[in-house]
Amino acid sequence: MCGNESATIAEKKVVREILKNAYPLIDTHTHFDATVFDKDRRQQVEQAYRQGIRHLVLVGYLHQYFDRMYGTQDFINKISQSSAIEANNQDQQCIKTHIALGLHPFYIEQHTEEHLKQLEQMVVERRPLAIGEIGLDTFTDTMKQPDVFAKQERFFKAQLDMAVDSGLPVMLHTRKAHAEALAILKAHEYDAHKLGGIAHSFSGGEQEAKAFVKLGFKLGVTGQITNPNAKKLRRAIQVAVNSHGIECLVIETDCPDMTPIMCQTSDDTHAHNRNVPANLPWVLASLSKLLEIPHDKLAKQLWQNSRNALKVNWAYPV
After folding, report:
1. Using CA atoms, how far apart are residues 58 and 41, in angstroms rounded to an integer?
2. By residue range, what is the domain housing residue 64?
3. Given 10, 48, 246, 269, which residue has the most CB atoms within 10 angstroms?
């Protein structure tokens, strides 16, 4: 339970109820392999399980960290199996960990043609859950430069090609380039209605939200939704749901980033404000309040939405 004093008594009461029930949840986007978790990863896995997390997706961004992701997956599987054995209930005491592989647009200058070839080979040999995170990003002036942006577009299209060839969903990273990303997606043969896909950490406006959903993508909702000042995002989510139903959403922590506002501390350091998978119920709570949908109904629908987005058959725990 987060301890930020800025969280209202009412908010804390709502989340206490959610945590007490530990609704089964899927964290559709994490970077839980990051070194910031090395000292307490086991404790964070155990805490996440207590808060209802049953599936966790590790998402790639740089080729150099792909092996680290698989090492983290092996570590989590081992401690989950150990906990299951201790509880004498192997089906109910573990978090399943999955991997998406991709070359992130923000790090485009670090990617090489060889990395693309190696990624393509890994997709064939190891068949990850998804391709991602991939997309377009013009957050900085450097990334807006024609040659840099052209490379982003080329790598984005190449990875969409891989997704089509392998029949896998994609996880999109789109920041300050929604129109450009949508134009590429509309022209490409990748079909999210058939293959699935998530517009990870969605940050666009109302029209962009509806456009991604119309193309078949689910909108990834992070801890940003917990901030009442994120009015553009909150309105975009409401409009998308009004147009397409709650079937268009999934939730994620994007840990160690996107920490829910209730879990941020006055000590503005990365270590203190690190996001963790166990914080996902705060996203559920804020989304439930925003959309005026009961927690249990929303949690179960989000599970189904995640299954649809990732094209998996993970059974809802009973």
Report:
1. 13
2. 9-310
3. 48
Predicted TM-score (pTM) of the model is 0.93
In a domain, 1, yes or no: no
User: pLDDT tens across 216-253, in order?
Assistant: 999 999 999 999 999 999 999 999 999 999 999 999 99
Q: Which residue in this structure is represented by tokens 């022209």?
A: 187
- The strand ranges marked E within 138-272 are 170-175, 198-199, 218-221, 249-251
Amino acid at 220: G
Q: What is the CATH number of the domain that holds 74?
A: 3.20.20.140
User: Which residues 6+ apart lie within 8 Å of 167 measured at CB?
Assistant: 195
Residue 3 belongs to some domain of the structure: no
Per residue in 79-95, pLDDT (tens digit) is: 877 665 455 554 455 89
What pLDDT is stored for residue 83 in this prediction? 63
Does the residue 4 lie in any domain? no
Q: In Å, what is the CA distance from 281 to each residue of 2, 23, 146, 222, 278?
A: 11, 8, 41, 11, 7
Q: For residues 128 and 163, is the Cβ–Cβ distance under 8 A?
A: no
- Which residue in this structure is represented by tokens 């993970």? 314
Output 205 or 12, whichever has higher pLDDT. 205
**In terms of DSSP bridges, do strands 198-199 and 170-175 run parallel, antiparallel, or are they unpaired?**
parallel
Domain count, the chain: 1
